[in-house]
Write a structure and sequence with these properties.
It is built from 3 helices and 2 strands. Helix 2 packs antiparallel against helix 3. The chain is elongated and about 65 Å long.
Length: 137
């Protein structure tokens, strides 16, 4: 991947193919409303690596921007049926983003607790004695 003016460019992808049009979704055929997916759940996000969560954050951010652009376009054209669909998609993307932030915060807190345990001298030994002296007669 090459870094070019704040955007990551995939190998083999030209700079010209990444344009302002990325913020506009293709207009569906008249009368058809595309089905929206579902929001990411917290258990699904907990299984992802930090790198995957980072990538997903930017995918969701881009999708949110596309949806806000659509929302404003639909407002101007006054299509109430499509407006409610876009609002539903925005809600799902916002839910996913909030859950993703929660997972990142959980990981940050657990890493801080682990670091605190390491600095306090905790070595992870069990509380049970190695030789069972309490049972000797």
């Amino acid at each position: 991947m090459n870094f070019f003016r704040g955007f990551f460019i995939q190998k083999g992808q030209s700079v010209a193919s990444r344009s302002f049009n990325e913020f506009f979704e293709q207009i569906p055929k008249q009368g058809s409303i595309p089905k929206a997916g579902r929001a990411w759940t917290a258990p699904e996000l907990r299984l992802k690596s930090f790198e995957d969560l980072h990538k997903l954050w930017y995918v969701l951010l881009k999708e949110r921007n596309v949806l806000f652009t659509q929302k404003e376009t639909i407002k101007e054209m006054s299509h109430p049926k499509q407006f409610s669909n876009v609002k539903n998609k925005i809600r799902k993307v916002s839910q996913s983003m909030a859950r993703l932030q929660t997972i990142i915060t959980e990981r940050k807190i657990s890493n801080q607790q682990l670091a605190k345990l390491k600095t306090s001298g905790y070595k992870g030994e069990s509380a049970v004695p190695k030789n069972n002296e309490s049972n000797s007669l």
